[in-house]
Amino acid sequence: MTTLRDAALKSKAWPFEEARALAKRYDKKAPEKGYVLFETGYGPSGLPHIGTFGEVARTTMIRRAFEVISDIPTRLICFSDDLDGMRKVPDNVPNTDMLREHMQKPLTSVPDPYGQFDSFGGHNNAMLRRFLDTFGFQYEFISATEFYRSGQFDATLRRAAERYDAIMKIMLASLREERQQTYSCFLPIHPETGRVLYVPMKEVNAADGTITFDDETGREWTLPVTGGNVKLQWKPDFGARWAALDVDFEMYGKDHSTNTPIYDGICEVLGGRKPNHFSYELFLDAEGQKISKTKGNGLSIDEWLTYAATESLSYFMYLKPKTAKRMSWDVIPRAVDDYHQQLRAYPDQTVEQQADNPVWHIHGGQPPQSGMVVSFGMLLNLASASGAADKDKLWSFLRRYAPGTSPETHPDLDAAAGFAVRYYQDKVKPLKQFRAADAREAAAMADLLAALQDRTGAYALDLIARKNAQEGKADAALPVVNWSDEEFLQSIVFATGKLHGFDPLRDWFKALYEVLLGSSDGPRFGGFIALYGLDESIALITAGLAGGLLPPPDEIPA
Asked: What is the pTM of this model?
């Protein structure tokens, strides 16, 4: 019998592939520190965005995969670079004039523009932790401010002073000549102004562990590199942190990948062992631009969770991390439905298939059952057709469609119904554009209407028989008349489109969506009729043919 570990050792799922590569790091000797350390870094210059979540989610997936194939304990650290100087005021926060007075101060020394925390860095750190806690991540949080000021980083900083020339050799090779003249890996924090200074060093005293420099006014200062008086530039800080914490794994975006040799080199200069890396593609907004914390473009974590459950976002993050992802509103419904499709498939899969199923990695090997008796996309179309203002309206259809279901027995369906109404009201309803049917479309819809109105089924069966004859299948058996059967209803819709010469047939369904639902895309129409109800569907088609769904003439664009 194949065990999960056996399956994991052969799985092509990317978290298991990365976990196997990490396990080779200690195939001869366990880590002296007693655990394997995963790290994610966060620059709290603005509110956390969805890419930050993705980094922690994906790292967690690799961590869980590693724990299947190895008995070595693991830890995950989320490190916030909150001692960085504020170089730009974000566009998406209040009190920007106040923030400009504190430019170049460490983020944990800048007042909180929201007035809720002791600093701007503290506010953004709290937002990050709240978001991560929403998803139940198991992590340890480290603030760079505390790391520097508490002395935890002192030994590495003293070593950086001792090996200053070696660090500078790595860094200068990556800089333009003009930048080389003033660059130092050390950034002093001015004792009086509290600002992070980008100034050249006059002396780095390895024996004393001090730096000497002139500030912007020409005054000379000498500061110890320890105790939070000095911080490292961000690239050296990356590698120094790896060395100080003995990090085994860290992933980062593709925009960092060219710096990997710098990070690795500095880590090794400081006596560390470079960690395993994973470079993922960037997240893009609807216009294809990189998502930025300071711009606030793209979807935020809170925005996604306004319209879908947390698991759908985790599913989105699992998919093809080496491929750039467009983060816009229309990706949410597909992510929800694809997640539940995988969830439904999981119980009947082999151990090998389960190891490759995204839901294993999302739920750490214990995925729940799906209670989605209809898709999220269908719920959206139901909300659209019924004009639902709350989820109770959708439940009036769901109870009839699937007797025995209720908010209590199907909580995920209940949550999805609420999300669907909210998504419809905010994102679909404002963009709905109904149109009138042309002559051929109107004739086809009239036929479909007549078939649905004839409860004997004779008209419907005649349509299906004529379609079969048209295709040279006159002897094909006709379906059993069952007005609650999605397949029977779909066969009527399909036959109607065929008989009226729609080629490709997609044009027929597109006409139904645009005339009846005000959208160019929509559901499998037989399933929609079954869910919405026969009488309601008849009324909808009747209204569409009569122009009753069109806006008043004075509201129709010229």
From this structure: 0.89
